[in-house]
Amino acid sequence: YVDLIPKYYKGTVKELLMKADETGKLDEIVEEFGLKNILNRDIKTLSGGELQIMAIAATFLKEADFYFFDEPSSYLDIVKRLFIAKRIRELAKKANVFVVEHDLAVLDFLADIVYILYGEPGAYGIVSNPRHVRNAINAFLLGYLDSENVRIRKDEIRFEIHPPKPPEDKGESLLEFRDIRVSFNTGFTLKASGGILYKGEVIGVVGPNAIGKTTLIRVLAGEIKPDEGFVSVKATVSYKPQYVKIEIDGTVEDYLRTILGMHYDTGFFQNEILHPLGLKRILHKEVANLSGGETQLVAIAACLGKPADIYLLDEPSAYLDASQRMEVSKIIKRIIEKQKAAGMIVDHDIYFIDMISDSLLVFSGEPGVHGEAQGPYDLHRGMNEFLRNIDITFRRDPETGRPRVNKPGSRLDREQKAIGEYYYTSFL
Ligand SMILES: Nc1ncnc2c1ncn2[C@@H]1O[C@H](COP(=O)(O)OP(=O)(O)OP(=O)(O)O)[C@@H](O)[C@H]1O
Ligand SMILES: [Mg+2]
Prior knowledge:
By secondary structure, this protein is an alpha/beta fold. The protein has helices spanning 5-8, 13-20, 26-32, 48-60, 78-91, 104-110, 133-142, 213-220, 252-260, 267-274, 292-305, 322-338, 350-356, 379-390, 411-419, and strands at 66-70, 96-100, 113-114, 117-120, 124-127, 131-132, 144-145, 150-151, 173-183, 189-198, 202-206, 228-233, 237-240, 310-314, 342-346, 359-366, 370-378, 394-396, 403-405. The chain has two domains: 2-151, Rossmann fold; 173-390, Rossmann fold (3-Layer(aba) Sandwich), CATH 3.40.50. The protein is built from 15 helices and 19 strands. The strands form six sheets. Strands 12-9-10-17-16-11-15-14-13 form a nine-stranded mixed sheet, with helices on both faces. A two-stranded parallel sheet has the order 1-2. It is globular. Residues 47-48, 213-214, 242, 314 line the site of magnesium ion.
């Protein structure tokens, strides 16, 4: 969990990397991984993506026969995910590399052989026979391993293809911001010209790493006072930060009861949140012993269980597997509809964003230096603006509907770019 690095390591990025370096290739790696701008930064002020890329660079600086990467894609933006997939493939030419990964689009690019782990979460796990990557991904999604003759999940994971709805008439406004500016002493500046969040609406927030997404959400949550601009929040807010810290001694149930009080026992919380998130089986676990995915689910439950009009969630999909991501996107949508609330959700998982958002706030700029929020646009336009900025198009896997990154310059990539449809191929 890269979020824990600042807790155990005090110092700058450069100091950490120098300590890790056994190859003498520090300068080369710094250049290649795009770390120049953050070398002298204190680790505790890094964004999620900056922390992750630093941790991956440090691993590359070690001399080893075996390299292990545990969920290297979490917190990275799409461009960086593809970059590290490529870089890990190169590393595998000279050493053995072992990667644990939830992002199937990344796995697609980086692995030759895949082992699927299945079983009963929190109780036992079994490692499958090795499979070639595409077979493995399809077997995993299908939920059935043919050579072992085992069903690993009740249902198949299906990716839906839904052309975005045309924008509807908006209801009552719950939150409004205008001409926001935030500057940090590290030299980063955020600009957001404005936006309105309406009742019943979910705004997805997308953009590269270190571009100001978390900073804007913190401004809206009231954690950071902007240097300039206007924020008006006409409703109650519940906020899940990107780095989840649950600092209590006690069980999951103790924690959720502390946060939610009497709301913990309501049918609504039990049936709409706790049960569908699969948290019942870990209620008696100590919070301190939870896995990354479990911690994330508990934090999501705590955020959604608080009665509020506005739910702000910063990277809820991090550390979750593909089926948990789908479940979480449905739960968030359902709760926002039922409570007649609204939400703003930052995420790097394009499918998750597609499922959950009505409109999109799109960040662009120069990571670590300045970021600007544009929109909110309707989903169709927003997705195209965002993917045009990063020059990536997606197609759908014909068997599973899973979004897959097109190879740059391939026929589909060229065709889609020519007509400006970067994601919704149903418009082709
Ligand atoms: N408290 C702070 N003090 C100084 N610099 C900060 C602080 N918080 C964030 N930054 C810097 O501001 C920039 C934007 O950070 P932010 O966390 O908003 O990015 P982000 O878009 O959420 O990125 P990610 O996708 O990696 O989470 C980054 O370069 C980050 O290092
Ligand atoms: Mg962030």
